Amino acid sequence: xxxxxxxxxxxxxxxxxxxxxxxxxxxxxxxxxxxxxxxxxxxxxxxxxxxxxxxxxxxxxxxxxxxxxxxxxxxxxxxxxxxxxxxxxxxxxxxxxxxxxxxxxxxxxxxxxxxxxxxxxxxxxxxxxxxxxxxxxxxxxxxxxxxxxxxxxxxxxxxxxxxxxxxxxxxxxxxxxxxxxxxxxxxxxxxxxxxxxxxxxxxxxxxxxxxxxxxxxxxxxxxxxxxxxxxxxxxxxxxxxxxxxxxxxxxxxxxxxxxxxxxxxxxxxxxxxxxxxxxxxxxxxxxxxxxxxxxxxxxxxxxxxxxxxxxxxxxxxxxxxxxxxxxxxxxxxxxxxxxxxxxxxxxxxxxxxxxxxxxxxxxxxx
Length: 366
Known about the structure:
Blueprint: H1 3-26, H2 33-36, H3 55-58, H4 66-72, E1 85-90, H5 93-96, H6 106-112, E2 116-117, E3 120-126, H7 134-144, E4 151-156, H8 170-173, H9 176-186, H10 198-201, H11 208-227, H12 266-274, E5 279-283, H13 304-321, E6 324-327, H14 346-364
Parallel strand pairs: 1-3, 1-4, 4-5, 5-6
Antiparallel strand pairs: 2-3
């Protein structure tokens, strides 16, 4: 074979590569991964979003493609199918269920109650995702609406509100094209960093990680479907009981939180995203320590002055925007928390589910 043959092969390969990139760039930014996913076809959809760093043991991984996350979740099989009352639960790792099996999470415990409304089962779906950011939650909320929930329940806490934390969630930081419409449409008070060319991001090279993660997610689905394992359960250090005397909350000093440094506007925006769908905001339970310096701090996260003021600001925001709020902050005894001031054990989740179910039924089955 002469050099001319190799040259022609290289030219054809480059042309095909160029065509493939042009096709990818021309496609909508939302890829049809639900039609390609093996989940809900060859094996069941996951009960919670994929998340994890120990892939070989947990059969799970963290990825940034929101469409691929939804395609792997059991919620994606719901399109065009409605024989239940659907409740979507959003929030952070406390909803996702750190250190809990799917059936032990808040959503799992709510489903264990076998609630009904007007002779239809009430089915709960876990759309929480670890990392604390109201912006991340809004992004997932908007993406979930095509699956026709009958109620949106959003668990939240003060730690999700500081402006500096909004893009600290890698899922939010890696999806600026999903967050920008929220900023523009709802006047979300968040400044996004400048990003590179959208065309480059949608090229084969720009999406190489997304495609690799998608393939790995499909492969791990085989072992996940076989074992039911989607996270590991290591020994952990319990949440701090004895606390530092420090009273600052990040860089904020008592006696007051600056309202312009917290994204309280996210809550009425969540209700706007839900539209005509009933919307319930829940101030999630926190650990209330009675150890050393507990007169100054509720827990590792929160000085008392800051958290008390947050609850007042949350109540004001709710009153001004006609938001329905359940303030569950003190519903759970401190000994029932695990490795964090917002993570509870399975027994506590069961208690929480029974109490919250009363409030949920008021919304979906008045």
